[in-house]
Design goal:
By secondary structure, the chain is an alpha/beta fold. The chain has a single domain, classed as TIM Barrel, CATH 3.20.20. Helices cover 39% and strands 16% of the residues. It has eleven helices and ten strands. It has a seven-stranded parallel sheet. Helix 6 (153-174) runs parallel beside helix 7 (193-204) and helix 10 packs across helix 11 (306-326).
Length: 327
């Protein structure tokens, strides 16, 4: 495993992917749905919000930048809207009072055009820092969709994997050095972890970029160390929300990949103190050397307010700087 050239010797800062949408984007998306503005007007505002989030990340010294996903609603529905064979169904509850439109597989699933490359290129044009390519993984798209076409979940997942692979290859050709394939559903069904691994192999096998998967809020203790078989360079995990409990597993079975170390809980309004984050990084370095650690929030920040997200990211950077000074 290698990682593209970055300053320093580890403890690089990044974010998982999504950022809070400013009020003007939420208003514009509603106006677009009511046909009060056209797609070009909405896109202009999405570009403005993307630019603002990249400027913020640069201002605090983030090492690997994300575009914030200002142009996406739900992480699965966004891809389903672009992929032949998938239709968008009705609203279902995700958690709390958050809903998404659940896709339905009504035919063979594929990909007939790039879905994220133009947005990645726009984001990368705004910064000298590397911008992550951000994709939703095939297993999660399947798990969060209805299937009215395929004889088995495996058939559905593997067709999705081929489509996501083609998107990842286009991102790599465009210049993406980091490509993240999010699989938040991967740790929810232990009996299908082999299917997650098989599908990810299809996605990542032809890639030379640094590959990442993000897994959040599942039964990690049952998934570990099996999750190390997922064929990516880096696994991004939440630690703040679980009080770093997974570190106990690393004593018995060493973590062998790069890690995305989540040190800020994205499901709370609380802004964790820098000292608390510093302690989390120190704990982790007892098990994983700093040159294999990327530091970020537990998950995407889209459920937080803009101010909360900025404070959490700022404190992450401050905590990393404290630990780097000690090293």
């Amino acid at each position: 495993m290698t990682t593209p050239e970055l300053p320093g010797k580890g403890l690089w800062t990044t974010s998982v992917g999504s950022m809070p949408k400013p009020d003007y984007i939420l208003k514009a998306r509603s106006q677009y749905a009511r046909k009060e503005i056209d797609r070009s007007e909405l896109k202009e505002l999405e570009q403005k919000a993307t630019r603002e989030w990249i400027e913020f990340q640069e201002s605090i010294g983030t090492d690997v930048v994300v575009d914030g996903e200002m142009y996406r609603g739900d992480m699965v529905a966004f891809f389903a809207e672009e992929m032949p064979g998938l239709e968008i169904g009705g609203l279902v509850r995700s958690y709390g009072n958050r809903f998404y439109r659940k896709p339905i597989a009504t035919g063979p699933v594929g990909r007939d055009k790039p879905m994220t490359v133009e947005w990645w290129e726009y984001a990368q044009s705004l910064t000298e820092k590397p911008v992550k390519g951000m994709l939703t993984g095939p297993y999660t798209i399947c798990d969060w969709s209805f299937n009215e076409h395929y004889d088995s979940r495996r058939d559905f997942v593997l067709d999705l994997a081929k489509a996501i692979r083609d998107e990842a290859l286009d991102l790599e050709r465009a210049g993406a050095k980091y490509i993240q394939i999010d699989e938040p559903a991967a740790s929810t069904r232990m009996d299908e972890l082999d299917l997650v691994i098989e599908a990810m192999q299809i996605v990542t096998e032809p890639l030379e970029a640094h590959t990442i998967t993000h897994i959040c809020y599942g039964d990690f203790h049952r998934a570990y160390p099996k999750m190390l078989e997922i064929p990516v360079d880096q696994i991004d995990l939440e630690f703040a929300n679980s009080e770093y409990g997974l570190l106990e597993e690393f004593s018995d079975h060493p973590f062998t990949k790069y890690i995305g170390l989540g040190i800020s809980d994205v499901h709370t309004h609380e802004i964790e103190p820098v000292d608390e984050m510093v302690q989390g990084i120190r704990q982790t370095m007892k098990h994983i050397p700093p040159e294999r650690i990327f530091v970020d929030p537990d998950c995407g920040l889209k459920t937080r307010t803009t101010e909360e997200a900025k404070e959490k990211l700022s404190n992450i950077k401050k905590a990393v700087d404290v630990v780097k000074a000690e090293l």
